[in-house]
Amino acid sequence: MLHFHTERQTIPHPILLEARQIAPNQILLTYDKRTDLQSTTNVSNYWIRSNMGPVGIASVGMKDALTAENAVRPDMAMITPADNSMMKYFMTFSTNAVSGVTYTVLPCFVNLEGMTGYRGENWAPFSRNMFIGI
């Protein structure tokens, strides 16, 4: 289980603004600030939760704790920059999302550009990080 410490929360970090499905096997991730390429494109820094358990692109179910073992794996997906902004990324999956299933994208440990060491969550109450599979 991941434990986030209060002192670590004070480290500036990017927040996922939106995760939007743009193809059956692809979502567009948009952050609020420029991100560190290495931590942003590391798929093991992401969890995809669904209301149906680990199906389609999901790595965890609704009540599952986020652990290193149930993070998205390199054989499940890859992340590439969508442009030169360092804020938009494509997450392309080896399988399609299941139509009608609700997915939530949960990134952790993504750093700001030029920084390292952030060990917390990269979403907030205002994040639009849920979508329904098409």
Set down the secondary structure blueprint.
Elements: H1 6-9, E1 16-23, E2 26-31, H2 37-40, E3 46-50, E4 60-61, E5 77-81, E6 88-93, E7 102-107, E8 130-132
Parallel strand pairs: 3-4
Antiparallel strand pairs: 1-2, 2-6, 3-7, 5-6, 7-8
Describe the protein's architecture and organization.
- This protein has 134 residues and is mainly β.
- It has a single domain, classed as Immunoglobulin-like (Sandwich).
- Helices cover 6% and strands 31% of the residues.
- It has a four-stranded antiparallel beta sheet with strand order 1-2-6-5, with no helix packed on it. Strands 4-3-7-8 form a four-stranded mixed beta sheet, with no helix packed on it.
- The longest helix is centred in the first third of the chain and has 4 residues.
Keyword list:
mainly beta, four-stranded antiparallel sheet, 31% strand, 134 residues, globular, Immunoglobulin-like, four-stranded mixed sheet, 8 strands, 2 helices
